[in-house]
């Protein structure tokens, strides 16, 4: 297991849940829920500041695939969000991990803890981020390698270059 803090992200269309691991990379805990800001990217800048402040070694973004394992509109949006995060936090790695049904699981966990359904919205995104990050940490410990798929930033092609 690689030591170091990881940041977990649950990307929603309105809010972004954020979690972090301990420095040993064993336990995920909730941090904050950020409002999405697709125009000015204030949420992405806040994430970049958090990555720097915590000295994170990696950012884990949940990839909400369909039950059939395909990329639907939500997964396409999460991939784009992860790419934008990657640009802001480089050279810190950003990885996508399958997060099917984590929001459903987060609602169940909050209900089981006695939190009223009308108050779930306040923390459900953070809880989903914790579930995403904890699953990634557990997978890395079990398999011995980083989980999910890395975001690869494409190098720009130079005009006029002959192949």
Task: Please specify the SSE layout and strand pairing.
Elements: E1 6-11, E2 15-21, E3 28-35, H1 42-54, E4 58-63, H2 73-89, E5 93-98, H3 102-112, H4 124-143, E6 149-150
Parallel strand pairs: 1-4, 4-5
Antiparallel strand pairs: 1-2, 2-3, 5-6
Helix pairs in contact: 1-2, 3-4
In short:
This protein has 163 residues and is an alpha/beta fold.
Describe the structure.
The protein is α/β, with parallel strands linked by helices and 163 residues long. The protein has a single domain, classed as Nucleotidyltransferase, domain 5, CATH 3.30.420. 37% of the residues lie in helices and 21% in strands. The protein contains four helices and six strands. It has helices spanning 42-54, 73-89, 102-112, 124-143; strands at 6-11, 15-21, 28-35, 58-63, 93-98, 149-150. It has a six-stranded mixed beta sheet, sandwiched between helices. Strand 4 (58-63), helix 2 (73-89) and strand 5 (93-98) form a beta-alpha-beta unit. The longest helix has 20 residues, at 124-143. It is globular and about 50 Å long. It starts with 5 loop residues before the first strand and ends in a 13-residue tail after the last strand. The model has no long low-confidence stretch (mean pLDDT 87).
């Amino acid at each position: 297991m690689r030591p170091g803090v990881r940041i977990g992200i649950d990307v929603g269309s309105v809010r972004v849940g954020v979690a972090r691991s301990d420095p040993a990379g064993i336990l995920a805990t909730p941090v904050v829920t950020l409002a999405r800001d697709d125009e000015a990217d204030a949420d992405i800048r806040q994430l970049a500041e958090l990555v720097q402040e915590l000295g994170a070694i990696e950012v884990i973004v949940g990839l909400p695939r369909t039950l059939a394992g395909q990329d639907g509109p939500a997964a396409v949006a999460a991939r784009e969000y992860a790419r934008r995060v990657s640009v802001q936090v480089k050279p810190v790695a950003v990885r996508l991990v399958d997060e099917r049904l984590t929001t459903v699981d987060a609602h169940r966990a909050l209900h089981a803890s006695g939190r009223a359904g009308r108050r779930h919205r306040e923390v459900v995104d953070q809880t989903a981020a914790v579930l995403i990050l904890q699953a990634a940490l557990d997978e890395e410990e079990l398999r011995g390698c980083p989980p999910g798929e890395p975001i690869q930033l494409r190098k720009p092609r130079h005009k006029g270059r002959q192949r």
